[in-house]
Design brief:
The chain is α+β, with helices and mostly antiparallel strands and 160 residues long. A hairpin with a 4-residue loop joins strand 2 and strand 3. The longest helix is centred in the N-terminal third of the chain and has 15 residues. It is globular.
Length: 160
C-alpha cells in the first residue's frame, strides 16, 4: 500500500472589498443572475457569470423543475450557453453566488459535483485553467486558480 496526499490551494477573501475590480463587476452580474433564478421548490437561488477571452460576459442561473432531476444548475447553464454561442472562446473566469430565500447565506458555496465535472470538460478542452470565485450572498469569497483544485481526481476522455 502507498499513501497519496492530494492538496488544494485556495485563496479566501474576507469580502468583495478585497477582490480586483473586474471580479467585483463580474460578481455583480452573478448577483443579478441569482436574483432571476427559477427555484420555487428549494428556494435556493444561484447565479454564475463567466468572462470569456473575447471579452463577452455570459450569465446563468439555476432552473428548477417539479421533476427534480430535470433542473439545471447556474454554472452549467452559463458554461453550456457560452460554449454554444462562442465555441472558440476560452473561459477565463467564473464567479458564483448562491443564496437561500429561507435564510441569509454567508458561507461560500462551491459548484456541485456535476458542475465541477462539466467545468472540467471545458478547462481540459481549452488547455488553460479557469479561475473560479464563489461565495454565498455576502461574506467571504473563495478563489480557485483552476477547477483541478476543486476536483483533483478528474474523470476525463483519457480513461475512455
Amino acid at each position: 500500500m502507498k499513501e497519496v496526499i492530494i492538496e488544494s490551494k485556495l485563496h479566501v477573501y474576507e469580502s468583495l472589498d478585497e477582490l480586483p475590480e473586474d471580479v467585483v463587476s463580474l460578481m455583480q452580474k452573478a448577483f443579478k443572475a441569482r436574483d432571476n433564478a427559477y427555484a420555487p421548490y428549494s428556494k435556493f437561488h444561484v447565479g454564475a457569470a463567466l468572462l470569456l477571452d473575447n471579452d463577452e460576459i455570459v450569465t446563468g442561473n439555476n432552473q428548477e423543475n417539479a421533476s427534480y432531476p430535470s433542473g439545471l444548475c447556474a454554472e452549467r447553464t452559463a458554461i453550456y450557453y457560452a460554449v454554444s454561442q462562442y465555441p472558440n472562446a476560452k473561459v477565463l473566469k467564473m464567479v458564483i453566488s448562491a443564496g437561500s430565500k429561507n435564510k441569509l447565506t454567508t458561507t461560500p458555496i462551491p459548484p456541485c459535483g456535476a458542475c465541477r465535472q462539466a467545468i472540467a470538460e471545458y478547462e481540459i478542452k481549452q488547455k488553460e485553467p479557469i479561475e473560479i470565485y464563489f461565495m454565498g450572498e455576502t461574506g467571504k469569497v473563495v478563489k480557485s486558480h483552476s477547477l483541478s483544485n476543486l476536483l483533483p481526481l478528474v474523470f476525463d476522455k483519457s480513461v475512455l
